[in-house]
Write a structure and sequence with these properties.
The protein has 144 residues and is mainly beta. It has one domain. It is 3% helix and 37% strand.
Length: 144
C-alpha cells in the first residue's frame, strides 16, 4: 500500500514532499519562440492554488503549463480534457483517488474522483463551474 501523498498515474513515483505540503513537478513552458522545462512546486491540497517557480521565472495570467512527472518525464495532461492534469492522491487511510487540476496559470479549478467508480467526489475553485460538466462524464484518465 502506498503511503499518504501524491503519485504519478503513469509510473507510480511519489511526487509530493515528505511532509505532503507540496507536489514537486516539472513544468514545460513554451511559446512560438522558445520552450523551457522548470521545477514547479504546487500546493498539495485540492482547492489551494499557486505555485513556486525558480527565481526569475514569472508567469502571466493565462499562461499554459504542461505538467510533467519529474521521474518518468511523461506529460500529466488529461487526454480527454487537456485543460487539466491529473495525479493519484492517497489519503491517510490508504484510499487512492484521482486529483485533476487546471493547467492555466490563474484559473482555479480542481476535482477529486474515485479511482473505483470514476465518479466526481468533490470540486474546488472559482472556475470549477466552467469545467464540472465535462468532468461529471465518464472519462478515461490514463487508462485507469
Amino acid at each position: 500500500m502506498q503511503k499518504e501523498g501524491f503519485y504519478c498515474p503513469l509510473c507510480s513515483a511519489r511526487v509530493s514532499s515528505d511532509d505532503n505540503s507540496v507536489v514537486k513537478l516539472k513544468g514545460k513552458l513554451k511559446s512560438d519562440k522558445f520552450s523551457v522545462i522548470v521545477n514547479i512546486d504546487i500546493p498539495a491540497t485540492p482547492g489551494k492554488y499557486g505555485g513556486a517557480f525558480p527565481e526569475g521565472v514569472f508567469l502571466e495570467e493565462g499562461a499554459e503549463v504542461e505538467f510533467i512527472c519529474p521521474h518518468c518525464k511523461q506529460s500529466l495532461t488529461i487526454e480527454d480534457n487537456p485543460s487539466h492534469s491529473a495525479l493519484f492522491m492517497v489519503n491517510e487511510d490508504g484510499k487512492k483517488k484521482i486529483m485533476a487540476f487546471n493547467r492555466t496559470y490563474g484559473k482555479h479549478s480542481s476535482f477529486v474522483f474515485s479511482v473505483d467508480t470514476k465518479k466526481l467526489l468533490a470540486s474546488y475553485g472559482e472556475d470549477q463551474n466552467k469545467y464540472v460538466e465535462k468532468f461529471n462524464k465518464d472519462i478515461n484518465y490514463f487508462g485507469f
